[in-house]
Design goal:
The protein is built from five helices and twelve strands. It is α+β, with helices and mostly antiparallel strands. The chain is elongated.
Length: 272
């Protein structure tokens, strides 16, 4: 009886002596660092493009923009012609979120030949986007948006990008498709009988919705440091369908729409 009790005490002491170092190690082991807060990226953008949809002359605009991502997450590729977007769902190969774009207006001061045609105010286009990476170097993206103020139609942009990085340099290139409904097409490419009579150089025209342009975008980015990066890009759109057949485009504009741009980005962290 005494022997068995002694063995039991020895076993308990041995177990305690083995468990204590393990518990002490757990107590004093370093806790993994989890970044808190957000990374904010401020951008200064300079863009050269058609004065209005379908125009044959150019205008230059500069504007700021910003984006957010959680601290500790890598910066994801963004094509230079993407809308301003914020992810609500972000997996390894899929992103879904909200997006917005700005669409400039059409004014008589842009082109005196537009006399008699209705002025079109600037528009903002909020909407949603979905992005998918079928391969590590290939991105597909779709945006669906609705116009507010200057137009009240639905528009969509579809794109595919081949993305390759070489050290601090990142190259991207890919095709683009743009679509708009009847409301969008009539706002920018339509001509009412009254407008035709006042202008005297165009005939009445009532376009339908559908594919409005095909094209491509190419860009190159250079990362100077964790904070600074710059991007240069070129875009090309070829108006097609009812948009290309518009008398506004044929008389005053061009089916070929070129764009150029430069962006400088600065990123910094915010704590909670």
């Amino acid at each position: 009886m005494r022997l068995s009790t002694s063995l039991a005490l020895v076993s308990l002491l041995a177990a305690g002596s083995l468990a204590a170092p393990a518990q002490a190690a757990d107590l004093f082991s370093p806790v993994p660092f989890v970044p808190e807060g957000w990374i904010v990226t401020l951008k200064g953008n300079l863009k050269v493009g058609p004065s209005y949809p379908g125009a044959d002359d150019f205008s230059v605009i500069g504007f700021p923009s910003l984006s957010f991502r959680r601290a500790g997450t890598p910066e994801r590729f963004s094509a230079p012609d993407d809308g301003l977007s914020f992810s609500l769902l972000e997996e390894s190969a899929v992103r879904v979120g909200v997006v917005g774009r700005f669409q400039g207006g059409r004014y008589l001061k842009d082109d005196r030949r537009l006399f008699g045609l209705d002025k079109i105010d600037w528009a903002v286009e909020p909407g949603v986007f979905v992005e998918y990476w079928p391969l590590s170097f290939l991105r597909a993206r779709a945006e669906i948006r609705h116009g507010i103020n200057g137009h009240h139609g639905f528009v969509a942009d579809l794109g595919l990008d081949l993305v390759q990085s070489y050290g601090a340099l990142t190259f991207s290139v890919g095709p683009r498709l743009a679509l708009g409904d009847s409301s969008f097409a009539r706002t920018y490419f339509g001509v009412t009988p009254l407008e035709a009579a006042l202008n005297g150089q165009v005939t009445p025209y009532r376009p339908s919705g559908g594919l409005t342009s095909v094209g491509a975008t190419a860009g190159v980015s250079y990362t100077w440091s964790e904070q600074w990066s710059t991007t240069a890009y070129v875009t090309y759109k070829r108006l097609v369908g009812d948009a290309a057949d518009s008398p506004i485009v044929k008389r005053f504009g061009s089916e070929n729409q070129f764009g150029f741009g430069l962006t400088a980005s600065y990123s910094f962290g915010t704590g909670r």
